[in-house]
Specification:
Elements: H1 3-30, E1 33-35, H2 39-47, E2 64-66, H3 68-83, E3 86-93, E4 99-102, E5 107-108, H4 113-128, H5 134-145, H6 149-158, H7 161-172, E6 187-188, H8 190-201, H9 209-219, E7 235-245, E8 252-262, E9 265-274, H10 279-296
Antiparallel strand pairs: 1-2, 3-4, 3-9, 5-6, 7-8, 8-9
Helix pairs in contact: 1-2, 3-10, 4-6, 4-7, 5-6
């Protein structure tokens, strides 16, 4: 073999080895990656290739898939484990369409249900071909911006309570949410709250553009003493939080849902949690989980 042919053969083997090493490293480091060829098989293919193999032949391209739920769990679980509380989070990148969910537990909504109540009211108004009344607008603004409970109770009655909420949610795409005798005890999941956010902030929604814009605007005007939660994960936020101590245990439910902008991306995030010793501890955990969720995508 001429010197030029020997040099060409050495380059072929080195390139193949580097490609195989990259596959092995990616598999070990990420854990959540599934490769078309196992790392061992790739290593054997390179090490067994004869030196005289033609330079034009390269290892087959490996198909790589990522389980984003697994990636999200790896990011969030250490934070939750240290807290002693229970938490579920769902996140969606609106541009790529990629989403992930951690946790399947059902939680009390507390005041995040106020977004759902207003969505149900707007849907009913659309059906009737009318705008909200002046009184309804006043109540809606107080309910979302200030988290006013009296306004929420009034609008809860207007939409028909739990039955009216459930009927609206069937149309909004929520399948894991059930209204209760008291609006704050409505049961939901992070996955379903993400579906609600898609109905509010997406374009493929039974809510009209005018209804969506109205709800979004109120969520962008949250009182400054309530602008915590998913807003910690980015800027340009619109959100609604919920917090409630449970009488039976003295422990807190702390939830946050909304939209944030991060590094040019727009994400929808829902974080639900319970079992906190204090409201402040719950807020800290919710914000940490929101940041982890957005960065995991």
């Amino acid at each position: 073999m001429s010197p030029r042919h020997r040099a060409r053969a050495r380059r072929s083997v080195v390139c193949a080895a580097v490609a195989a090493a990259a596959l092995v490293t990616g598999s070990v480091a990420a854990g959540a990656y599934s490769l078309g060829r196992s790392p061992d098989a790739a290593s054997r293919a390179v090490s067994s290739a004869p030196p005289s193999e033609s330079p034009s032949r390269t290892p087959e391209a490996a198909e790589v898939t990522v389980d984003l739920d697994t990636v999200l769990a790896a990011a969030v679980e250490p934070v939750v484990a240290r807290s002693g509380a229970s938490l579920s989070v769902a996140v969606l990148d609106t541009k790529s369409g990629e989403s992930a969910v951690y946790g399947e537990k059902t939680y009390d909504t507390a005041s995040i249900v106020k977004v759902d109540i207003l969505a149900a009211l707007l849907l009913a108004a659309q059906d009737a071909g009318r705008s909200l009344t002046a009184e309804e607008k006043t109540q809606a603004a107080a309910m979302i911006r200030l988290s006013d409970n009296t306004a929420a109770t009034a609008l809860w009655q207007t939409i028909g309570g739990a039955r009216g909420l459930d009927a609206a949610n069937e149309r909004l795409g929520l399948t894991e949410t059930a209204g209760a005798g008291a609006w704050g005890l409505t049961q939901t999941t992070a996955r379903d709250q993400l579906a609600l956010l898609q109905a509010v902030f997406g374009t493929n929604s039974v809510l009209s553009e005018a209804s969506r814009t109205y709800l979004q605007t109120l969520m962008e005007q949250i009182s400054t003493d309530q602008d915590w939660g998913v807003s910690a994960a980015g800027s340009g936020w619109a959100l609604k939080n919920g917090w409630m101590p449970r009488t039976a245990t003295g422990l807190w439910d702390v939830n946050s849902i909304g939209r944030v902008s991060v590094d040019g991306r727009v994400c929808l995030v829902a974080v639900l949690s319970d079992g906190h010793a204090t409201k402040e501890a719950g807020i800290a955990l919710v914000e940490a989980a929101a940041r982890k969720a957005v960065s995991s995508l």
